[in-house]
Amino acid sequence: MQRPESFPLQGLIVSCQAPISSPLHHPSVIVAMAKAALNQGATAVRIDTPAHIQAVREQTDAPIIGLWKRQFPDCEIYITPQFDQALELAQAGADWIAIDATNRPRPGGETLHILIDQIHRQLNKPVFADVDTLESANLAFDAGADLLATTLYGYTPSTRHLTPPGYNLLEQLVQQFSCPIVCEGGISSPEMAQKALDLGAIAVVVGTDITGIDQKVKSYQQILSTPKSVRYAE
């Protein structure tokens, strides 16, 4: 697929998020993360929750991919599962609406087709479809998604045995779909990001490796606190 020079999401997109339990989960901190990323050349940022999106929007005109992680009883989908969340993201200033684009049941009986159609018709926003498999990608594309991303590869019941980044899925998406393709999930070095672009992704989304202080420190501590006898056991 050709990469149009005018397409707003190219190269490096930085996901600026933090766990709710973290002191980093504050609008001013998220804004600082986003501005630092954009100052160093990121082309867009991926932001969770309306409050954080609004705070970032007030500080930049750069593209914002908005999502809202909401948990509902007896529902596996939590990335912008309903139109109500998409509406608030758009009102807060998101340019793109990121959704879980798998075909799993949604709260209130909403469907993927209805959700994408409402985002297009009522909000006039493009849809950033997070998928996990080629099957999900087909459904999302047929429903009108504007972009496909490998975000959920390794994070759904059918893919939990797989480890992101989903390069194999990425290659399939690039070969089979005419819309832009983004690689997201598991990118932990510039070399891995470059590989995704070489495979045909128009952009890569990097989160934990750049902004995930909580998870990075936890990973260090898990290793450093392990007794040598265990670490070096044959």
UniProtKB/TrEMBL annotation:
It is an enzyme of class 5 (isomerase). Its EC number is 5.1.3.9. InterPro entries: Aldolase_TIM (IPR013785), NanE (IPR007260), RibuloseP-bd_barrel (IPR011060). Gene3D superfamilies: Aldolase class I (3.20.20.70). CDD domains: NanE. It holds the Pfam family NanE. The keyword Isomerase applies. Pathway: Amino-sugar metabolism; N-acetylneuraminate degradation; D-fructose 6-phosphate from N-acetylneuraminate: step 3/5. Keywords: Carbohydrate metabolism, Isomerase. It catalyses: an N-acyl-D-glucosamine 6-phosphate = an N-acyl-D-mannosamine 6-phosphate. NCBIfam families: PRK01130.1 (NF002231). Belongs to the NanE family. Converts N-acetylmannosamine-6-phosphate (ManNAc-6-P) to N-acetylglucosamine-6-phosphate (GlcNAc-6-P). This is N-acylglucosamine-6-phosphate 2-epimerase. It comes from Roseofilum halophilum BLCC-M91.
